[in-house]
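LOG
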Amino acid sequence: MPDATRHLTLANGLQLTLRHAPRLKHSAAALRVHAGSHDAPGKWPGLAHFLEHLFFLGTARFPLEDGLMRYVQALGGQVNASTRERTTDFFFEVPPSALAGGLERLCQMLAEPDLGIERQRREREVIHAEFIAWSRNPQAQQQFALLQAVAPGHPLGAFHAGNRYTLALHDPAFQQALHGFHQRFYQGGQLTLSLCGPQPLDELEMLGRQHAAQFSAGARVSQALPPPLAAATLPRVFSHAQLPAGAEQALELLISCLGDSRPGTWLAALRQRGWLQDFKAEALYAYAGQLMWHIDLQLTENASAEEVDALLQGWFGFLQAAAEPLNAEFELLQQSRERSASAIELARRDSAGQPFAGLDSQALQAFRALLAGLPSRVHGHWQLPAGEPLLVADLPAARPQPLPAALQISNLLPSARQYTALYLRWQVPSAARQQLQAVLERALQPLQERCARVAVQLQFNAAGEYWQLRCAGLPAAVLRTVQLALTLLVQPPAGSWLAPSTPPAGLIPIRALLKQLPDAVLGALPLPGAPDTLAQAQLDSLWQQARWHGLAVGFDDTALNALATALQHCPGQASTPGPLPAWANHRWQRVDAHGSEHAVLLFCPLPAAMEAAGRLLAQSLQGPVYQRLRVELQLGYAVFSAFRQVEGVGGLLFGVQSPHTSQAQILDHLLTVLRRGVTVDPAARQALAGQFAEPAMANEELAEWAWQTCLATQAGGLDALRGAILATQQMDLDHLLDYLLDSDSSWLCLANAAAPDGAWLTATE
């Protein structure tokens, strides 16, 4: 059944967009303010971004501990905000019954914020910490340099993030500008509110009208037109001016065409020559008919840049005559993306006026204008790819046959959800597995690119001596993807054996620690030396030694039959999940990571019997950890705490990245919060238990829970977990805290190498 939508203009000028999507389990709200960093006075860089931060610090009606962020987090939802050049977006996703509470808090905090000077002072330090991290991030600096180079004299090339020096809090002129910006733009005429969920349109309309009425009435303010955008002079950076309406949607189609790596396309031509390592195309700016975008290519050392660009211009020329057929497949892609999108993705697209759809006649005109403004020539041999089989809705034909004994079937997710997930996991003892893993990653990359286009998730990763393949999405697409992926894993194409000449970009410290966490949990050690040269025979030998097991979630009987056919070609010998990793006492591990900021990741594994108490403790600690480390101590902008399952091991996870606080101090602050304890809140306990029911859990979240439970070889299901959470008492949390703080408890603490060796251990020595 297609979604039903409705568009209204309220009495205060606010544009209200409603979407009834019966398949959704959650509801979402997205509010777009038509004002951003380029609309703030140039004298105060970062003012719009600073105001976005201030909104989340609570108001008299909803103080911080009952504000939008805490409210959504307590329900296991998502919440965030983003300040762009000419827009600012606020969005959250919660269970349908909580949409009213979230919407009330969102509208109230934006309509009546508390802009007290003391909270401004504290939040400015957080902004400054973000600025330091931004200034030390090579990718961020490369993009900033790019914008400065291609947009001289345009606001696009200016600094807008803000820091301690640009936000002059005690200057009356700054305060006047801050309050004036809020009064001018945070009123009905500048706002678009989108609500999306399984509720009927009338119910969504009632909620929208009730809570959006908190905004004052106003007319749409004419945002100042930007100065002319100079023609881009850097390679693969493109700028356009005076484009017709629909240019952003047109660019989305063009980027989709550029990202198509099937035979006959530009990316396929680069890959065929052995030149392509990675590709990304993205919009840099779009406003008032101006558009700037760029293509970020990672090429091998032997690639000819001149020929790459000549082929690109030939591809541009070919596309000019193929607008209609390109748009026809793009519409199928968009339909697939819409069927797979979450509530928050749908709400955000609606608030931006860009729903998942093919181009209408106006946007097609913009597409032609976009291509007409690009360099083109007759060069290369091109063809439109054949229809994408991953978009075929019918299941692959298959004869009845038994499923492999190594595959477990989960019935947690009804097939009516039209979401399936398959997990395959191999234990690979070979010393060559790291080098062969890189070969397989390169072999899967073109298929992963195809999957990303059609809203299928295909992941291949490694931890310890395990390889894991995960495929999730619509049933027919998953089944066809699995068949293709297994073929590639067994027999990689010839080009996959060539090692890349360019190392991957470094991650910021906290992300580097998170990436290393699965290996650390498994206690993985460096492998002994592997062969210098790799060949198919070594991969064949590896697969003969490998043992596998897996889990299928969301498949009905017909789809399981097709899955059995696909898994006939699964390499390795059938097996069962192995024992969980275990360690005693505290374990410390240093991780090499890019950047000079200090980062700590603390993982506290818990016995299965403590999972319910651990989840309730993690829920109760979110607020205190954030309040102490982020708000009061202002350690940095990256502060989080949660319950996580890693390689089947459940436990509490704390993460902090700070530009100025050492690892030892960070760890001390975390321990201080734990020593203060928490008090059981019956309402929070009830809310947490309510999150563990199939209708309340996102499909992806439910599948991952089933997989982690499979790895843990745990008995019991969601009903048992809900019951255990509801039965958890204060003494259970107190006992758990004592367990965590005991010197004999099991801890895993990861840190980056920003501090001298041993300096960060003094917190507990």
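LOG (cont.) second protein
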Amino acid sequence: MFPKIYYLKDRMTRPLRCYGGVLLAISNNDSFRIREGEEVREISIALINEGNLFQIQESNVVMFYFSSTIILEKLGIDVFKNDLRVNSEVLLQNQLISLFDYYKKQALDTQKAINLLNDIMNNLLKDQKKMTKASNELLSGILEYIIEYLNIKITLEDISKQFYISTSNISSLFKNYFHISFYEYVTSLRVAKSISDLRTTKLNVETISLNRGYSNATNYIIHFKKYVGITPKKYRMIPNESGFLKIKEVESDWNVIQTYDFEEKNLYKHTHISLNDEEILQSSFSYFNLIDIGGYKNLDLILDEQIFNYKNFDNYKLDSYIYINDAVDNFITEKREEQSLKLRKLLKTKVSIALKINSLESLKLIEKLVADLHFLESEHLSSSNIRNGNILLLLDSNNIKNLDINKIQRNLYETRVFISVDITDSYIKNKEILTHQIYTLNPDYYHINFDSINNGMQKSYDDFDEFHRNLNAFLENIQAYKNIIFLNYEKIYPSDVLKNIGKFLEVSLYSKKYLAGSSIHFNKSSENQISIFDEIENKTLFFHIGIMLLNFSKYRCFYGESYIITKNMHGYNILLFNSDSKIADENDEHTHVFYINFQNSRISNDVIISEELLNSDYGSIDGIVSSEIENRKIFPDSLKYKLSQYNSPKLSVNKYNQKTGSYTVKLPPRSVVMLTIYL
């Protein structure tokens, strides 16, 4: 009933077929190399189907051989007509290691071991066998020909005439691609195909040999014994035997195998996603950015942008306000006329602006600037650009006690005005309800300035996690649903979160129920770690993640563990994130695998799926510029512009059909990947 277990003590020296069953192999190492047909791959677990040609090219591998009888009894699957595939690699690895432990303890007859075997069988998916393909077009045609005419005599001369190629070239093709001869490929395949006749029919050996292309039974018996190890008659007499691997490099003695130990493996996390249209019903992840440019003196940063047009706010697709973090009151007293001209110039753009207001005088100044601009433009232009932007006024509740918010004009010449009131003090004092004065203001939003919070940067992630729970509890108490703005939020982020875009996204979703907007710096400096442009004016990971999240701001979503799903008129978007803090040596070193099933979605036929990978290698200039260059500010403008063209997530495009099973994404640590499925 249980599989036969082998230990591969040396690498296989030649390719062999798997006869009459299915082989699963795992290694004590994180991965091992295997040749399957013409392809050599490095994998963590191997599933070799009945009749497949394989060669494990490393030692120290444990092999579990499941005979066709076991597969048929447990799953009702005909392994001679179906291929099996792994549903969850990490789960299957753990299951096989546990099964190996039962084997060592000679406890395979226990109920726990039997249940485990059933779980292993259920971790396998079946699929109809596919026509053998090869990367070489000529060889692929020859393989199809062999499959079609396998049950009659096939010679090199027949192939030569059919494909107009010499017999020596055919032999070379098989030696070069499969590392076995043409005749060994054909005879071993015939033996593999004949096993289904021995298992599922009562035909005699002579009839089977004739049906499988042999001129007589003698040659068939010789070949069968060569590849399987016993004669067809004996093979048929012992159907429950599970060990028919004739590999000289394997050890099958229990006394030897039971001394083998699996080291503790660093297995990756796995997540199964079912794409179900009926479950995508949660609210969208919509928010706006307050892009912090600093004080009024920095208005030139965005008003006089001449070289890097990608920094032009007209090209920034996210809902955003240009946020000037100096109170208007401060700039009233300093070079008022000069600053007013700059602010007027800003108001003429199509972008929205966010301003801090502490007094009635500064509010009247803003209203006057908007009015002056409106009348000035109405005399020269048929229409005003200002109607394309909004104004958000951030009010300090402690400084506006005498200000009647109801008297603030909410529409200034077709420019909408929104009000947000500072509730930082209420949060610090952990008030369960806001003051009557704040409620009577009836603002559009509330905001918390984390720069003012006494405990500052959290010392550890556990502290930060507790802080977030308390914050959400406060927001729930005041019922701040989709109307809270976070200012200087990065002040309370642990540094390891800011350096991990996967963790940053995970943390950002904690407050999705309450979040309306948050501030982000325009340019990076020594004082801030979150910005949309870095110290050489190049796009950052936070820029790219904002663009990705834009896809989830218009339509309903489904929020799962480490992923978000949304659908639109043209397809689906799935955002996957790996918050593992491990620093990978190679970008393809993954610690989280996602298996995506599309059976309950609108996807039915072949679809195109694009993947955009975002991490410190892709989407940041750190993956482009050598770490030996410490002072990047010396780069000439032409190089900065060139870097901006190449700095982007890694894009790959794949074709997928759900009949082939789950779509698999292996995600490196500290990474995010955006899947776009085009219908």
